[in-house]
Specification:
10 strands; alpha/beta; 8-stranded mixed β-sheet; Rossmann fold; 15 helices
Length: about 400
């Protein structure tokens, strides 16, 4: 799973659905238990007199004497159990039973050299470096709601071809939250500049997925003098050049809903962050988050490992952090920056991506002076994972090339 301003409606719907499933199970259980006999009639004989006494039953006794049958009580209990199983185990049906296994398994990042960067706003950025020390340095910036682990597939496929610098965006992964609660793209672009400085290598290649690409384009606006000297190339993956609400499927409708609905829901997400956190975990456990990831992130060739890999990032991130970062994306526009980028740029798009329509990537590739585009197909917003081998190979060829 992942987070963009346009996805807030779906996140709320899944969360409320997850609460509804759990509440429904509780109501059915309560009605079933309430319908069980609460007492039994016992007869006692005293001095030849027989008397009937109604003895209250304990909860354990009420349940233990009940026997299932083809009746309303059994149906209520069965319905409650089905809803409970769905609430806490639905993801196994989505992941284990409905998806093929990946023969290579799910990759993990290898232990790496870790560095902490203290930023002026109080953020402590977590960086990790891995790969061949003498190889070309590539700085990887992940998508919103994820962390540096999102690059595990690329790190596995590239092995030691490149020196990789992976970092967690503020408030995600092992990076702390800024004390001033600034999650603007400008703030994160300044953070990226600090990562470039700390990389100790020049020139470097910048690669970003989704908001990671937006941060890179914002970096280009703020630090144009570094393009060609400290930064030699850009790789933009499933990313937009302006407010992502305007480059998403149904963008006309969602743009109209931005002010009256999407922004108020983001504010509510900040206020009710603990409640949203619980709802997000429930939607992960019941599998509704996996279904959403499938609809927007994958095109049908994903493995069970890939599906759970992407979805598992979602419940771990703070809803308040995600909402504040989404507000930052709503104010984003790099249209004028594109034509000022004079270094080579490779843009990856997914032909079926509903989160960032392929036209957005085409616009970037056509506008930057040295742009080229690589279409992943069939692919949606996580084409670089669904087609990880093809993505890694194409990106490596570009990064190793001496020119366009």
């Amino acid at each position: 799973m992942f987070m963009t301003p346009g996805s807030v409606l779906g996140n709320w719907f899944r969360g409320l659905l997850s609460i509804g499933i759990l509440v429904g199970a509780g109501l059915l259980l309560h009605r079933w238990y309430d319908s069980l006999p609460s007492s039994v009639v016992e007869t006692r004989t005293t001095d030849g007199n027989v008397t009937e006494i109604h003895r209250p039953l304990s909860a354990i006794e009420r349940i233990s004497i009940w026997r299932p049958d083809w009746d309303r009580l059994t149906a209520m209990l069965g319905g409650a159990l089905v809803l409970l199983i769905w609430s806490f185990s639905g993801r196994f049906l989505n992941v284990r039973l409905l998806r093929k296994a990946d023969p290579r398994g799910q990759p993990r990042l290898h232990p790496a050299t870790a560095v902490s960067l203290q930023r002026p706003d109080g953020t402590i950025l977590h960086l990790e470096t891995q790969g061949a020390v003498t190889a070309q340095t590539v700085i990887l910036t992940h998508g919103w709601g994820m962390h540096r682990g999102a690059w595990a597939y690329l790190a596995r496929d590239w092995q030691n071809q490149f020196r990789l610098v992976l970092w967690d965006l503020p408030g995600l992964g092992k990076s702390s939250r800024p004390k001033n609660r600034d999650y603007s793209l400008e703030k994160m672009a300044h953070d990226l500049k600090a990562v470039v400085d700390a990389s100790g290598a020049q020139p470097v290649i910048l690669m970003g997925h989704s908001i990671g690409g937006m941060i890179i384009l914002t970096f280009c606006r703020l630090y144009p003098e570094l393009l060609g000297s400290r930064v030699s190339k850009l790789v933009l993956v499933h990313t937009s050049f302006k407010n992502p609400v305007e480059t998403i499927a149904l963008h006309t409708l969602l743009s109209a809903l931005q002010k009256p609905l999407i922004e108020p829901l983001l504010v509510l997400q900040i206020v009710l962050s603990p409640v949203l956190w619980l709802m997000n975990w429930l939607s992960y456990l019941n599998g509704s988050a996996h279904q959403s990831t499938t609809r927007t992130g994958f095109a049908g060739q994903e493995s069970r490992e890939q599906l759970d890999f992407v979805t598992s990032f979602f419940p771990r991130a703070s809803p308040a952090v995600l909402a504040r970062g989404s507000f930052g994306m709503l104010r984003y526009d790099a249209t004028e920056t594109l034509k000022q980028i004079t270094i080579p740029v490779l843009v990856f798009t997914g032909d079926l991506d509903p989160v960032t329509l392929p036209q957005a990537g085409q616009k970037i590739a056509e506008t930057v002076p040295q742009g080229q585009i690589q279409m992943l197909a069939p692919a949606k917003h996580f084409g670089m994972i669904e087609h990880n081998a093809k993505f890694a190979k194409a990106a490596a060829v570009f990064c190793n090339s001496s020119s366009m």
